[in-house]
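Hi support team,

I've been running sequence recovery on a batch of backbones for a student project. Most finish fine, but this one hangs at about 90% for roughly twenty minutes before it completes. I'm not sure whether the input is malformed or the queue is just slow. I've pasted the structure tokens below so you can try to reproduce it. Let me know if you need the job ID as well.

Thanks,
M.K.
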């Protein structure tokens, strides 16, 4: 083992979680697959470093082991270089709308898009990153499908007689998982990108804030759940309001109902109309509005009832 081999990357069995583990197992962090890559694309160096302190510390230790020094300015420049390398690849793989030389592959899935990018548009992409991931297969022991301590498992096998050791192993089920030693930010991001590509994980660009996100519910989601810039509402909430307003604007029945609703509600706020009358009107008009939307009454009849 080389001196700089101090931490590994491991993907969970369901491919949804990435684990970063120090060599001695003293510390481990779990991240949703794709989240590190998204934050690389969205955050500056300081914000990323503060959010991922453990990863930053590991990378710093690797740098010191390689060069015997740590220069914060050099680290920030390296971060920005890696960010630029992955920004174009992310655009090709994730964005729904492509233009120019990328337009021809717009209908492709993520595997097709990545193949087109790395084979045709940027064939030196992987070489330029100087990836240095090395296999470090690890074993996780289970008893009755429940994970147990690796350290305790090893000690119990080694510290008892041979026949007892065999008997103990037969009560467990070791599962071997491929982990990888990593040595740079590019290694981590390449590992992330390839697992997203291989797993066909959907990453989209939010139609409100324009930042990347992984849909947690429906894969056709258009908005992320982050708080929108300059607002206390999330992008999902803003998207719902925008969708309603657009629908209302395009439908004359909904538009007329909304205008009358606002006018009558304003009268209530000013004390010109009693609240109980307004609430009764709302309940009655919802029924009338729905009848008009279904075509059960004419638009003119709807407007006549709306105004009464």
């Amino acid at each position: 083992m080389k001196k700089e081999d101090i931490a590994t990357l491991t993907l969970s069995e369901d491919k949804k979680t990435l684990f970063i583990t120090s060599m001695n197992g003293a510390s481990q962090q779990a991240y949703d697959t794709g989240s590190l890559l998204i934050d690389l694309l969205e955050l500056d160096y300081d914000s990323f470093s503060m959010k991922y302190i453990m990863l930053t510390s590991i990378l710093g230790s690797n740098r010191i082991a390689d060069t015997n020094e740590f220069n914060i300015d050099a680290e920030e420049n390296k971060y920005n270089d890696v960010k630029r390398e992955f920004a174009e690849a992310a655009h090709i793989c994730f964005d729904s709308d492509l233009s120019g030389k990328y337009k021809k592959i717009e209908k492709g899935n993520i595997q097709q898009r990545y193949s087109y990018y790395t084979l045709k548009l940027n064939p030196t992409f992987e070489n330029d990153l100087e990836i240095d991931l090395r296999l470090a297969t690890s074993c996780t022991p289970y008893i009755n499908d429940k994970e147990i301590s690796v350290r305790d498992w090893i000690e119990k096998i080694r510290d008892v007689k041979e026949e007892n050791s065999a008997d103990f192993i037969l009560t467990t089920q070791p599962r071997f998982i491929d982990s990888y030693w990593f040595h740079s930010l590019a290694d981590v991001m390449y590992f992330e990108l390839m697992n997203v590509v291989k797993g066909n994980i959907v990453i989209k660009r939010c139609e409100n804030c324009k930042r990347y996100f992984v849909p947690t519910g429906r894969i056709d989601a258009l908005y992320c759940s982050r708080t929108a810039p300059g607002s206390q509402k999330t992008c999902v909430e803003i998207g719902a309001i925008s969708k309603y307003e657009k629908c209302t604007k395009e439908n004359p029945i909904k538009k007329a109902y909304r205008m009358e609703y606002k006018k009558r509600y304003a009268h209530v706020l000013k004390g010109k109309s009693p609240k109980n009358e307004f609430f009764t009107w709302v309940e009655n008009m919802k029924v009338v509005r729905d009848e008009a939307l279904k075509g059960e009454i004419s638009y003119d009849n709807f407007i006549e009832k709306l105004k009464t």
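--
Follow-up from support: It reproduced on our side and the slowdown came from queue contention, not your input. The first strand starts at residue 7 and ends at 11. No action needed from you.
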